[in-house]
Amino acid sequence: MDVTSPAFKDKAAHALTDAQLQRALGNIGHGFVHKRRQAADALPEFERLRDEAREIKTHTLAHLDLYIEAFADKVAAAGGQVHFAETAYDARRAVVDICRMHEARTVTKAKSMVSEEIELNRYLKKKGIAPIETDLGEYILQIRNEAPSHIIAPAIHLTRDQIEADFRRVHRHLSEARALDEPASLLAEARAILREKFLSSDVGITGANFLVAETGSAVIVTNEGNADLTQSLPKVHIVVTSIEKLVPTMEDASTLLRVLARSATGQDMSVYTTVTTGPRRPDDPDGPEEFHVVLVDNGRSGMLGTDFQEMLRCIRCGACMNHCPVYQAVGGHSYGWVYPGPMGAVLTPSLVGVEQTGHLPNASTFCGRCESVCPVRIPLPKLMRHWREDEFARHLQPRAARYGLGVWAFVARRPRLYRLATGLAAATLSRLAGSRGRLARLPLAGGWTRHRDLPAPAPRTFMAEWKARKRA
Questions:
Q1: Are strands 272-276 and 106-110 parallel, antiparallel or unpaired?
Q2: Among 324, 321, 337, 330, residue whose Cα is nearest residue 12
Q3: pLDDT per residue as tens digits for the range 328-384
Q4: Whose CB among 127, 196, 373, 421 lies 3.0–4.6 Å from 319's, allowing a Cys bridge?
Q5: Cα gap 372→361, rounded to integer Å
Q6: How many CA atoms are closer than 13 Å to the CA of 30, on its beta-carbon side?
Q7: What angle do helix axes 136-144 and 160-170 make, rounded to 10 degrees?
Q8: pTM of the model
Q9: What distance in Å separates the CA atoms of residue 458 and residue 447, rounded to the nearest whole number?
């Protein structure tokens, strides 16, 4: 997908006035946030598991080269093949080469945000290969020709009315009497349509939640079971995923699974947890004849050893965006690339460049909720601050913002001047606000007051109040 992050402000402003989007986003707090809190509270050792999950990922990243080699050896020993892809183009080419080798005309797909990152669907279509999304949310978005707006609930920006209208528009055979206003009925309709696609597909493409170096296995979790059909029915199974999904052992994967589902959807475990190790063996009742893993770097190795290495601990649960007040207000499409929310505000500049995505790390209140719910304890506010510092050091911010920060820094480094300036500002703004206690307009603060009133400060600063009380 094209990077539209430079238009974040315009997209966010439009999202705030989109009534249907706001109604859809209103479900996040009642769903994901509440369920995650219940699931975490019900598990006494949840915080300890978060610490263990953080250490597993930190250790793996410190020795990633060794675990990648071990994983590739185990995959080969099981009869599969690993394809290393340094760039998105390399990954696309690897997938298409495998498809052409088997003269594939259609591929079924399930559970792979990395395929969105490398724009795999667009490339497959260009090469005459039809990709069929089998996740219900992704299938709906394919009908609408839209990108996902969330990493685990891709169609969360849509209301039921919109989804039903799209189903009826595309599937004109549906009777008006056929009820499509519930997830179960939509799923049943999609299942009937997709069943034929599963059976006729030449190649199945999935992502992976974890890759296990100890066994050469790919672990994937879903709630619909579509990934199981995608990887077991076609003759060829291709896993398209990224290098940071490696974990050392199956026990490590088990620990991460215990925090993943609770953080993502508030479940103890996802409905389906599938472990795939190589192609079908002679005594297996089903499974693919070939097993390939396309291991994508696409800028991640450049994050190792930097301030942003901690971002590679991410296990894609989506908890940070579920709890983010900015994401809840503007949705995922405003962020302008594959990964939205706080995790996208750190990862997207790392992979795409902060020159195009500088608005994202600035679109944060720094309330800290993202870090407080992250199952692997990624310090997301700290990493967003690093990107802001990098922007400032490289003179990428607007001139007015840089001059404003320069004036602030000049005043803040001089205590007497700081006390004088803040004292005058507090007294003046408080007087202007009067009994209302807020300001509807203020020079140089139009970016704030255009949308909401500015709360007026107390008439005296904290330091002045403290001094007065101490004297009394």
A1: unpaired
A2: 330
A3: 999 999 999 999 999 999 999 999 999 999 999 999 999 999 999 999 999 999 999
A4: 373
A5: 18
A6: 6
A7: 70
A8: 0.90
A9: 22
